[in-house]
Design a protein that fits this description.
The structure is a homodimer. Chain A is α/β, with parallel strands linked by helices. Chain A is built from ten helices and eleven strands. Chain A folds into two domains: about 30-115, Rossmann fold; about 140-265, 3-Layer(aba) Sandwich (Rossmann fold), CATH 3.40.50.720. Chain A has helices at about 5-25, 45-60, 75-85, 105-110, 125-130, 140-150, 170-180, 195-200, 245-250, 265-285, and strands at about 5, 35-40, 60-70, 90-95, 160-165, 185-190, 205, 225-230, 230-235, 240, 255.
């Protein structure tokens, strides 16, 4: 029976640390602030927004939301982003994606000031994550996986880590963060031929495939650490991850559930990034 | 006995294609041009420069060299780069690295216009390689590995490919190019614990470790494809790769030598990139 890696516990531990840091900043006259930019009102975005606002409040970060109409033109959106970029009170910007299809996402991601780009969407930050430069921002979800592994004391150096998924929001940046921690990283995906064998060989298996319960018992090595980054809805309408939790839990040494796993850590990483951005901005002014 | 993958053969095949393309461009009034920017006179740079000039001439690309003094200030170097950026006759810029230590490489790599950055050093291009966006430029050496595998008809999709090395000039961008070809990629490095086993498990093994003859016979799987990206000088002063060629050649199905392997393809990729840049520039003006 594997130990269940609870996202809420990781978030609780992070909260204390983050609160201390915002207190220190306030004592220096710096009031960390996040602006969420939301185009339209997708239920996913609204759900994440509620969680993020609550988390920011808990750790002492001001959070405001710029609501933009779904039909907003590219020029208007760019203008709105520029305005927040230029506001010295705002340290972090979270622009929900995907944007409505009529907007040129490519142009907009260039617009967010890299120094405020707390979810790592600007190419400057993407390049930094790729090169292992800590001065930038990684996307929050892969960073949340790292925080979870750290909290549970799981050593990464020299370990065989297999990542299922090669997206730019999880698989690829996560692989780079793991490489920076000196793991030996294997990246699998839909075209991988011997997925079962490759996964079973991993000491740490991270599923970010976006496919409900695709990691079966036989894909997990005995005693492996299994982290589930998937968020899916199964045919019966139930929220579930990429891992068949009940089956894998028997074999793994550690396993993260969905819900209540990595997803519960993401907004804490967002807060961490806003604080980092606030510190960098304060350092520049000093 | 493995088939020897000869870089000169790959380069010869590429030459015909590249010549055709420059002829077509000239017929449209576009004269592809590369500017090499060299600070000081490191022997490595001079050797590469000679090869690159010759290759450009062979395929119909104009090539000129901006020689800059080793003691050049950062301001002067930035000014020199800006001048070439702004010259519409120049389609590609190759700035040799490493730069002398007194220069801020980080600032300079941002200066090279991404559209002329034919060796993929600008963060815009790094981010594109990472995300699998073909519109940018990868560094020439990893792209040369791909060209070599293509020339020898080696299928990558679904294959277990192990890359030894995680540098930003070879290992990491190469891993992304392989992933884009749908290989299952494992990245090894100095902290990898079970290097032997991980390498032996690979159907395609690529050595970019920078360590003379470190890939021994027992690290190569029987029938594996082994590509050597290393350029080292052994204790007896002889040029050699990362692979113990004589030993591995007996076991591998394909193996690339050093010298005469990947290194002989790099300047052809550079030419390919200059032509791509010239086409993009012509397309923009049209």
């Amino acid at each position: 029976m594997g130990i269940i890696m609870k996202g809420t516990e990781v978030a609780r531990a992070m909260k204390e640390q983050l609160k201390q840091e915002t207190e220190q900043l306030r004592a220096q006259g710096v009031f960390p602030q996040l602006t969420i930019m939301r185009v339209g009102a997708r239920p996913d975005d609204l759900a994440y927004e509620r969680g993020a606002r609550k988390r920011m409040e808990l750790v002492g970060i001001e959070c405001n939301v710029v609501e933009l109409p779904e039909q907003i033109s590219r020029q208007e959106l760019e203008e709105a982003v520029r305005k927040v970029n230029g506001d010295p009170k705002v340290h972090g910007i979270l622009l929900f994606r995907p944007l409505p299809p009529h907007l040129n996402e490519e142009a907009v991601i260039h617009l967010v000031d890299p120094a405020k780009d707390v979810d790592g969407m600007n190419p400057e930050n993407i390049a930094k994550v790729f090169s292992g430069d800590d001065s930038g921002f990684a996307p929050c979800t892969p960073q949340a996986v790292i925080r979870m592994l750290e909290y549970y004391g799981i050593e990464l150096q020299g370990k065989r880590v297999t990542v299922i998924g090669r997206s730019m929001v999880v698989g690829k940046p996560l692989s780079m963060l793991l490489l920076k921690k000196h793991a030996t990283v294997t990246i699998c995906h839909t075209r991988t031929v011997d997925l079962k064998e490759t996964c079973r060989n991993a000491e740490i298996l991270i599923a970010a495939a976006g496919s409900a319960r695709m990691v079966t018992e036989e894909m997990a090595g005995t005693g492996a650490v299994v982290v589930d980054v998937g968020i899916n809805v199964d045919p019966s309408g139930q929220l579930c991850g990429d891992v068949d939790f009940d089956a894998v839990e028997k074999k793994a040494s550690y396993v993260s559930p969905v819900p209540g796993g990595v997803g519960s850590v993401t907004s804490s990483v967002l807060a961490e990034h806003v604080i980092k951005a606030a510190k960098m901005a304060a350092g520049k002014r000093a």
